[in-house]
Specification:
By secondary structure, the protein is α/β, with parallel strands linked by helices. It has one domain (2-144, 173-186): 3-Layer(aba) Sandwich (Rossmann fold). The protein has helices at residues 30-39, 50-57, 75-82, 92-103, 163-169, 174-186; strands spanning 2-6, 22-27, 44-47, 63-66, 107-113, 124-126, 129-133. It has a seven-stranded mixed β-sheet with strand order 3-2-1-4-5-7-6, sandwiched between helices. Strand 2, helix 1 and strand 3 (44-47) form a beta-alpha-beta unit. 32% of the residues are buried.
Amino acid sequence: MKILNLYAGIGGNRKLWGNENEITAIENNPEIAKIYQDFFPNDKVIVADAHQYLLEHYKEFDFIWSSPPCPSHSVTSYFLNAQGTIRYPDMKLYEEIIFLMAFCKNKFCVENVKSYYPPLVEPQSIGRHYLWCNFNIEGFKGKLDKVGRFGPVKSAETGRTDEKDKLIRNCVEPEIGLHILKCSYSTKGVKGNE
């Protein structure tokens, strides 16, 4: 399969995918893209705007994974707004969901955190993740901790969250990424296109 991995970060969702597929990763931060490339030397890594890349290249891939930035949708954002740090949710998330639902004939999954507001388009969910896919995701058996994630949130050395820890915390757990990819394989058809 040809896979497009948008907003790739350091590749948490991709970690257990193996090397059987042709994977193109899009990351806009060159330093983070370099870390991804070091982890996954067989993947094609492109430093670009993932939102625009999707619009221009979505037809070229068999499976699309998109994890747009989530801070403006998260529960934390709700608390920051209540404390006076006001901002709108970044609607690129819903632009991608609606666009893919309307035009993508191949399989896709858009991942984001559970939002502080009722979702505008009904998602599936696993742990702390909302998932908008055109196939069913069922039967996840991975172990999640009390807040719905696998790894530590704070630095073991300092007890504080630093930029490196934020990067790791924002990764999709590898077990979830693998489960979703396997579900995309086992689904006979795409919802609405069977």
